[in-house]
Predict the structure.
Amino acid sequence: MEFLLAVDLGVKTGLALFSSEGRLLWHRSQNFGNKTRLRKAIPWIVGMEEDITYIVIEGGGPLLKLWDAYLEKRNIEVLHIMAEEWRRVMLLDREQRKGSQAKEKALYYSGIIIQKISNQKTSPTNDNAAEAILIGTWAMEKLGWINSAAALLRD
């Protein structure tokens, strides 16, 4: 079995772990407070699960460089995306006109995903974890682990 860690990049980081069986195993968010603490936490985050095969990271800039510097040393395939990329697949056009609207929809849709493919039935407490769930669901489709990420939301 393979595992995918989805990361909504930021000092306030959203995380979600998925299996190649198309299951959401867990989700959470963590406020690291600053860039230095986040940099020190990356090995801990990646080490939470020993068998991570893929990491999908949404975001860019200096925080992404922290992740990439650490992940270069590991045998983990990394997918880099921006929010617009997964939102085009997961959200309807009218749901992504504003960032705040997209974040609100991410909270709603992540609840649907949790109900359908997770044994952990607690909803995300913020948009960081919610977006990590949607990012990971998008990536599962790209990896061929599920047929259609968008269909999970609307079936």
Q: What stands out?
A: The first helix runs from residue 35 to 47.
